[in-house]
Specification:
Elements lengths: L1 E4 L5 E6 L2 E4 H6 L3 H22 L3 H7 L2 H9 L6 H38 L8 H26 L5 H27 L2
Antiparallel strand pairs: 1-2, 2-3
């Protein structure tokens, strides 16, 4: 087995029955990947609806934790450390999808602005490149920040909650920032 980073930056192991899973989940709970997929199907619509109906950044921020909160309350083991971490990780997966959509839309928007500006001020037509660099740097920042939060938990099981909570929060916040870039630019 070897450790890699998933699309949301969480540490996963390749080689646990041939399926990628969170390290702790892979070792302790072999059916966790299927459970997370089911949680996304079961509780994801709560977050998707909240996100779609939000009319401003404050309303979007209120969506953070909506899915995992319902998951923790609705699942039999939802208020255990494992349940909370799994619910939070499942919400992160949904936010990661939103993040990728917002990044694509914001990148297209920046390219269009750059194209328009390139005719008169080509030296300032660099929004798309700046966004790409910023997003790459942000991914490293998020991953290392969440590694730190995870480490702050020491040897206690709370580290799982610190780590998964950090990934969810930071992914959601960046998603909202990307969306706002299209609203204030120009």
């Amino acid at each position: 087995m070897h450790e890699v980073l998933s699309k949301v930056g969480t540490r996963i192991v390749v080689g646990c029955n041939g399926i990628k899973r969170l390290v702790v989940v892979c070792i302790l709970f072999p059916t966790a990947l299927q459970a997370e997929e089911n949680l996304v199907k079961r509780y994801g619509p709560v977050l998707t609806q909240c996100y779609a109906n939000a009319t401003d950044s404050a309303a979007l921020k209120d969506c953070i934790g909506a899915m995992s909160g319902n998951c923790m309350a609705g699942e039999e083991q939802g208020e255990t450390t494992y349940g909370m971490a799994t619910c939070t990780s499942s919400e992160t997966e949904v936010w990661d999808g939103f993040l990728n959509d917002e990044y694509r839309q914001t990148m297209a928007y920046m390219k269009a602005l750059d194209k328009d500006e390139a005719e008169i001020f080509p030296e300032f037509a660099n929004r798309a490149d700046a966004l790409k660099k910023a997003q790459r740097a942000w991914l490293v920042f998020r991953d290392t920040s969440c590694d730190l939060e995870y480490a702050l938990g020491g040897s206690g099981s709370i580290r799982q909650l610190y780590g998964t909570g950090c990934f969810m929060r930071m992914t959601a916040e960046r998603t909202i920032e990307l969306k706002q870039m299209r609203e204030v630019e120009g």
